[in-house]
Fold FhaA domain-containing protein.
Amino acid sequence: MGLLDNFEKGLERAVNGAFAKTFRSGLQPVEITSALKREIDTKAAVVSRDRVLVPNNFTVRMSPADHERMSSLGPALIDELVDLVQRHAASQHFQFAGGITIGLRSDESLSVGMVQVDSQNVKGQVAWTPVLDVDGKRYPILKGRTVIGRGSEADVTLDDSGASRRHAEVQWDGSRARVRDLGSTNGTQLDGAAVKESILEPDSVITIGRSRIVFRVLAQAAGGAGEPRRAAPATQRHDMGGFWGAGE
């Protein structure tokens, strides 16, 4: 499965329900991803034999009507775009000079369905943001323990009869994550295998009852209100085992 296929599957979860009507006409999200990939590939600059530098700051311009529809998705769309840019850079062994920034902008000079991407290299501060992805909804993990279960007292509540009220917890110490079963009735699985307690790697899957929970690390830098979302440089190696950027 290619990068665009992965993006479309993630986006499908994000746009279900009320967002289902958003993309019946006009600019499609997959066209934005294609434009970002083209911009990265076109602007790739060979600095040395082992270093190919690509832009990390992107402005995606589109018609006012398309911008209104895309903006209705909120952070979910930007998260998916950032993730795609990171994955594409990693697959091509490209490197960034700083954190990835993606912003959407309305441009009255563009017709409905058209998209243009402007880019540049900008240095920036980076922060790692762990999240749990449940059916397209993302729950940020705070430092300490995040309880998952069916009960209202859980931090992440599952509408799943196969889940116990306090089923499992994810522990995050600022650099590493662990999952621990809390003595649940039906048990917890990690990447298809029963688990009592284990280190969580990025993109690993926790299964509770019928619920599929994906642990992700969105390498973003927190900005001020209204600032675009950012992600970490592809060259940075995360302290959690198994998470490597494009420069490694």
Remarks:
- Helices lie at 3-14, 29-43, 64-71, 75-92.
